[in-house]
Every structure is written in structure tokens, then in C-alpha cells.
Amino acid sequence: MENINTVLLRAKKYLLNNSIKSATIDSEILMCSVLKKSREHLIINILDKIEDDKINFFNELVERRKKNEPIAYILKKKDFWKSTFYVDKNVLIPRPDTEILIEEILSNYCKNQKLSILDIGTGSGCIIISILKDRPNFKGIAIDVCRNALKIAKYNAKMHQLENRIKFYKSSVDNFFKGKYDLIISNPPYINKFNLKYLEKDVIGFEPSLALEGGIDGFTVLKKVIKKSSRLLRIGGKLVLEIGFDQKFKIKELLKKEKYFVNKIIKDYGNRDRCVICTKL
Ligand SMILES: C[S@@+](CC[C@H](N)C(=O)[O-])C[C@H]1O[C@@H](n2cnc3c(N)ncnc32)[C@H](O)[C@@H]1O
User: Fold this and answer.
1) Which CATH code for domain 80-280?
2) CA gyration radius, the chain
3) Cα 186 to ligand 1 centre (Å)
4) Atom of ligand 1 nearest to the CA of 121
5) For a pocket test of ligand 1, which of 221, 222, 242 has the largest count of ligand atoms closer than 8 A to its C-beta?
6) What ranges do the domains of the chain cover?
7) Cβ partners under 8 Å of residue 102, min gap 6
8) Is 42 near ligand 1, meaning CB less than 6 Å away?
9) What digits encode the pLDDT tens for the residues 40-67?
């Protein structure tokens, strides 16, 4: 029987030889999931023997990672903000940069405020669920054009005991007319279709193009979100949008045209413009 360290070292080398830059951390995460143990446990017990059936299962996971499948899809879960979400190939993997939207929203509204919110393009539901978990008097609606994504968002809402506070609708933003909201949030697809080919293999090969592609200029869905939110927001209500790093100037123009006041634009962890907060006038 081999020990954990030997099996891990072999996997790391194999992934590195196949251009997986995060080979070390990826192998360790996969090993933790096979052993159902924490990383601390793994490090402390690295010389323990590991059964052959576990080695075989681990090698299967490594093989999937070698083909660039993201760890989150292999493990069917992703940590975001303070929670873990179920994810699969039907939804975008929640990104750390999107946590900036959550941080901003939570810092603007206090614990006992009552608010009606709409999440456009909910995907896994990570945004609306993270907000509602921290704000017990908020209730919300989440929409997505993708039926399979909505199933996952509903599953996540149930897992986080929020199924009674979020309603889900399968709808494209342009066909959605229901209600009036104090706050609308959206992380729409905003990548220009010609730039998709420059994305990392993990992203372009596995994540849904419906969640990534924003048409020929990247603004197709963003424009719809801005226009529709202008009708669905109460006067004084806020729109919080995630945008591409190079979309700030055009977004400001679009927002002014639809009678919003731009409160601020926040940078992401890589110091690129990423989150716009504006008020419906
Ligand atoms: C970038 S993903 C965001 C997912 C999730 N909100 C997040 O931040 O991780 C964009 C989502 O918008 C959905 N979508 C794309 N076009 C849409 C449209 N016209 N109307 C509503 N949702 C749309 C996609 O299916 C996808 O789930």
C-alpha cells in the first residue's frame, strides 16, 4: 500500500506536466475530498497509508482536473462569501470579485431594514442567498433565462433555508415585468463574444457560455438590465451591477440616459473597475 504523500507527489507532477499551474493545491483539495478530511488532517497524516480503491478514485479526479475541469465542478461545490453553494456545469462558478457586491450592499443597509430585492441572472443564487442570509427582513425575486440554472438556485435556497423568502422565475430580463423593487442586483454576462477565446481553458471549456457572453460588444445583456431595472426600481432605489474592467465609461453613459445617478464604482481585488452602484432618480 502506498502512502498519501507518494500518491500526492505523483499527482502534482502529472498535473504540472500537463500545464495545470495550481497543481499542488488542486491535488491536495482533491485528496481531502477523497479522504473526507481537512487539509490540516492531510498535512499532519501525510505518511499514512491509503487504500487502493481510494487511490483509484483520486486518480480519476486528477484525470478530470488534467483536462482542465474546474475543481468546483469536480467537487460540485464552491465557497462564496460565508456559505457553500452547490454548483455544476449549468451555472457560473461564483467568483471572489462578486463578493465585492455583497460587501457593498450589506454595508449600505442595516440588519432590520425591510427591502424588496431582485437578482437578475441569478445563476447558482449565490448573490441573493448571501444577502438574504445576512438581512432577515429582506425578501426577493431571482430570475434567470436558464431553466437548469434556476433549479440549482432553488436547491441552494432550500439548502440555506431561504426557500420561503425567494421566488424564482424563468425569464429573460427583457420579458420580466413583475413588481417594484428597492434594490436590483445583477452580475450579467458581459464578455464580448470575440474575447471569449482568450479566457482560460477552465472557463471557456466548462462554464456555460450563456453566463459569460454579452454579445458582440459585451453590452447586450447589461443594456437590457439597465433599461428594465429603470422601470422596476422605485424612485430612490439602487441598482448594483457587476461590469467588465473596461466597461466603466460606456456604462456611465447608459446609466445617465436611463436617469440613474452613479453613486460609485468600486474596484475588484485586481484593482480593476468591477462594481457600479447607482440610484434611480
Ligand atoms: C455571470 S452569470 C452570474 C451568475 C450569478 N449571479 C453569479 O454572480 O455567480 C450570468 C447569469 O445570467 C443569466 N442570463 C444570461 N442572459 C440572461 C437574460 N437575458 N436574462 C436573465 N438572465 C440571463 C445566465 O444564465 C447566468 O446564469
Assistant:
1) 3.40.50.150
2) 21
3) 8
4) 12
5) 221
6) 4-67, 80-280
7) 81, 127, 130, 131
8) no
9) 999 999 999 999 999 999 999 999 999 9
Report how far residue 18's alpha carbon sits from residue 202's, in angstroms, rounded to the nearest whole number: 13
Residue of the CA atom closest to atom 6 of ligand 1: 122
CA 121 to chain centre: 10
How many Å apart are CA 140 and CA 23, to the nearest integer? 40
* pLDDT tens for each residue of 198-249: 999 999 999 999 999 999 999 999 999 999 999 999 999 999 999 999 999 9
